[in-house]
Design brief:
heterodimer, A: about 230 residues, Rossmann fold, 6-stranded mixed beta sheet, 7 helices, B: about 375 residues, two-stranded antiparallel sheet, 14 helices
């Protein structure tokens, strides 16, 4: 039996806006095992991204338990959470979110600047990551000199350069054309199959979800039982 | 933190026009600030050069315009520690056209044989010195003054009296060099004295005193003034540097004036810089969210933003100090009203203070936006559209 890397129990997340309380997630119980490629699907506002943010410790739950890689995230201070995230999480955004003034290799190098690696080692790692995503010939290009698909591949290189345990992708194909989306999804599948990375893919695109080994659905902040598909 | 310097550099240069304008606005302000600090330093903080440290000036306690009896000279000469005392009489007068400020320069009637003792830093060829000492109507002019007004040896200079009811016909017999204060014309006091009506004779405006040692200066000043405390004409003795500064005081409270302008300039730069940094940070809140997602702590983000602001401020500060140095050189070498201006320069102290001000502006102007940005929750930062 493979190790459980994500475990939530009765996880709730509420937001307060203008005096009103909005429930984004309600009693989420989720288990993800090492090496899984899980797609989280659901309509807009169903809580997919919120759940991803809680797993990445980018936000704190209102109630319930969440353990990721054996770590109770609620017990960590802000500084510890930042270090933990840098070591264990690779995050891919829908809008790529590359730093526009940095070249591809400098963007990929960013997370490594928080490690003890030397400049030479950092660049070697960043180069390897860019080669892995097929952008060896675009290393010194600025984001504006790249296509959307290439930008997203740089973002994936940035997410994997620290060799994280978990890759969390939030609608990574949402801003891409079909061909680029296919490339990105193929790349994620490769990272899962060939490198054994645990990946959680948030998407509302059924085609994208087919690249994952398992799909779970969220509806109105609630996680549907495994195997259940919304009406 | 050093690992983030490339990011800081690139972020600083992200909006080139804005950065250039910010650097320029800071540099212009710091140029003005540097100039004001250089002025303040030249007037109030400059240490007297070694040749000036032993010199004092005695004048009438009531006013510089009221003379003292000439016999005070001999009384002062007897004070222990006094090496020499010289009559030094401001003549005033008009050279050519008084409406042209270029024709203004200091003219002093002195005892020529003592001049080169009191002002030991003066360098003059021996033959010229002898010619100056030998001739009652001779005058000696400083090199810079001679060059400015085209005086050559043998030239005749007419000074039309205003304070004194005499016109003097002088002949240039010596052109001397000195490290500073070389825009002065010296002539024989006896020539002036003999030209005056009897009622104006026997009176002197100031005495120049040379102490044997710099440590004696304060005691000599106190002793001289104490000596005449109960006399009809009381004296005021001070160092030559303090005496020169008293002319600056005629303009008003120059110290407060300089400090208040400097404070206003600093505050204005702070507002300009704070506005720019606030805009710059607001535009990049989303990137702050991305960096936080990658594992950057609020502290490291705070450091990156502060570093960027400090870099821009220091660039402006360095440029401003360079401009101030150029301005100081221009002012220093032009016609001047106060001798202290000759030492006007952006020295290490002024440079260090100006750069410290630039550093403080960099930190203060971005502290609040940087703090706010670094503390923005990640999700809120990532949703920011600025």
């Amino acid at each position: 039996m493979t190790e459980i890397v994500i475990q939530t129990r009765d996880l709730d997340k509420e937001f307060r806006r203008d005096g009103f309380s909005i429930t984004a997630l309600h009693r989420i119980n989720l288990e993800v095992r090492r090496g899984e490629f899980l797609a989280l699907m659901g309509p807009s506002g169903s809580g997919k991204s919120t759940l991803l943010h809680l797993i990445a410790a980018m936000d704190r739950p209102t109630r319930g338990e969440i353990r990721v890689l054996g770590q109770d995230l609620r017990a960590l201070s802000d500084r510890e959470v930042a270090r933990w995230r840098n070591r264990h999480i690779g995050f891919v955004f829908q809008t790529f979110n590359l730093i526009p003034v940095l070249t591809a290799i400098e963007n990929v190098e960013l997370p490594l600047k928080l490690t003890h690696l030397s400049k030479k080692e950092r660049l070697a790692h960043a180069e390897t990551a860019l080669r892995l995503v097929g952008l060896a010939d675009r290393m010194h290009h600025l984001p504006r000199q790249l296509s959307g698909g290439q930008e997203q591949r740089v973002a994936i290189a940035r997410a994997i350069v620290t060799d994280p345990d978990l890759i969390l992708a939030d609608e990574p194909t949402g801003n891409l054309d079909a061909a680029s989306a296919q490339e990105v999804l193929t790349l994620l599948a490769k990272l899962n199959q060939e490198f054994g990375k645990t990946i959680i893919l948030v998407t509302h695109d059924p085609h994208a979800a087919r690249f994952a080994g398992k799909t779970r659905y969220l509806e109105k902040g609630e996680l549907l039982p495994e195997g259940q598909v919304p009406d | 933190m050093f690992r983030h310097i490339p990011l800081i550099l690139k972020n600083s240069w992200r909006n080139r026009r804005r950065t250039t304008l910010t650097v320029l606005s800071i540099s212009v302000s710091l140029c003005l600030l540097g100039l004001l600090m250089a002025l303040y330093h030249a007037f109030y903080l400059r240490e007297a050069p070694p040749w000036q440290a032993r010199r004092l000036i005695t004048r009438n306690r009531v006013s510089l315009a009221v003379p003292m009896p000439i016999y005070y000279r001999d009384r002062i000469r007897q004070v222990p520690g006094v090496q020499e005392v010289m009559i030094s009489q401001w003549f005033g007068g008009v050279y050519k056209d008084s409406r042209d400020p270029n024709n203004f320069f200091a003219r002093f009637a002195v005892e020529p044989e003592k001049l080169f003792v009191i002002r030991g830093e003066i360098r003059v060829p021996e033959d010229q010195k002898r010619a100056f000492l030998a001739e009652r109507t001779a005058c000696a002019v400083g090199r810079r003054l001679a060059e400015r007004l085209g005086f050559r040896l043998g030239d005749r200079i007419t000074l039309k009296g205003d304070i004194f009811p005499v016109d003097l016909e002088l002949t240039v017999r010596a052109i001397w060099d000195a490290p500073d204060n070389d825009e002065v014309l010296y002539f024989h006091w006896k020539y002036l004295e003999e030209s005056l009506p009897p009622a104006r004779q026997g009176l002197v405006g100031t005495f120049s005193i040379l102490a044997e040692r710099p440590e004696d200066v304060t005691r000599i000043a106190e002793t001289v003034d104490a000596m005449f405390r109960n006399a009809t004409v009381q004296t005021r003795t001070e160092t030559e540097q303090a005496f020169a500064l008293s002319f600056v005081a005629f303009l008003g409270n120059v110290k407060a004036f300089i400090l208040s302008i400097a404070a206003a300039v600093t505050f204005t730069i702070l507002l300009v810089s704070a506005n720019t940094m606030a805009m710059s940070v607001r535009e990049r809140i989303r990137e702050v969210g991305v960096l936080r997602t990658l594992g950057y702590t609020p502290q490291s983000i705070l450091g990156i933003i502060l570093g960027e602001s400090v870099l821009i401020s220091l660039a402006g500060g360095l440029l401003g100090c360079g401009l101030a140095a150029v301005l100081c050189a221009v002012v220093r070498n032009g016609p001047i009203a106060f001798q202290q201006i000759r030492s006007l320069s952006v020295d290490a102290g002024v440079l260090a203070t100006a750069l410290a001000v630039a550093l403080a502006i960099g930190v203060l102007s971005s502290a609040i936006p940087a703090w706010g940005a670094s503390r923005t929750p990640i999700i809120q930062a990532l949703r920011h559209t600025g």
